[in-house]
Structure formats: structure tokens, C-alpha cells
From TrEMBL:
InterPro entries: ArsR-like_HTH, HTH_ArsR_DNA-bd_dom, HTH_MetalResp_TranReg, WH-like_DNA-bd_sf, WH_DNA-bd_sf. GO terms for molecular function: DNA binding; DNA-binding transcription factor activity. It comes from the Bacteria. CDD domains: HTH_ARSR. Transmembrane segments: none annotated. This is ArsR family transcriptional regulator. Residues 1-95 form the HTH arsR-type domain. Keywords: DNA-binding, Transcription, Transcription regulation.
Length: 95
């Protein structure tokens, strides 16, 4: 399942945790609670290159764990709370 592969990397798992509190990132032009966190802020916190941050977010997006909003040239990401809750229910049923 793509979601478990996405969560299998410690940095991607950390990013998903960080996005739970978007206001913990530096201020943006648009409120992070509304549009998500800009990739450049995720990149800085993860201490990875822009391309690596993009790959991490693409993996999380393909797994359905985050959504992306484009504003101009910038990509903003936020957790898909409904998908994460459904995953939690699915995992708890399997145990």
C-alpha cells in the first residue's frame, strides 16, 4: 500500500507530524491554516534540498495524506485529515 511506503521514511513521517500544527512554521503571506505550508518552509525544517522536499511531498500526496494548493509559483501543503482518520480506523481494525 502506497500509504505505508510514504510513512516508511522518517523524514516524511516527521513532515506529516509537523503539518499537524501549520502555525509552527514561519509566517506566510497566506495563513497556513487556510492554504497549507509553503514547500520552502517544509524544506528548511527538514534540512533537505528543494528537490528532495518536493519528492517527499509528492510521495505523501500520491498516498493521499496531504493536499497541495498552488499560489503563484509556490506549492502549499496541508494534511488530509479525513484520509488520515480513515487510515487510523483501517489500521485499528487490522490489529
Amino acid at each position: 500500500m502506497a500509504v505505508f511506503n510514504a510513512l516508511g521514511h522518517p523524514t516524511r513521517l516527521a513532515i506529516l507530524g509537523w503539518l499537524k500544527d501549520p502555525e509552527s512554521f514561519p509566517p506566510q503571506d497566506q495563513p497556513a491554516s487556510e492554504v497549507g505550508v509553503c514547500l520552502k518552509h517544509i524544506q528548511a525544517r527538514a534540512e533537505v534540498s528543494q528537490s528532495t522536499a518536493s519528492q517527499f511531498m509528492a510521495t505523501l500526496q500520491r498516498a493521499g495524506l496531504v493536499t497541495c494548493t498552488r499560489i503563484g509559483q509556490w506549492s502549499h501543503y496541508q494534511r488530509d485529515e479525513a484520509a488520515i482518520a480513515a487510515l487510523g480506523r483501517h489500521v485499528s481494525l487490522a490489529v
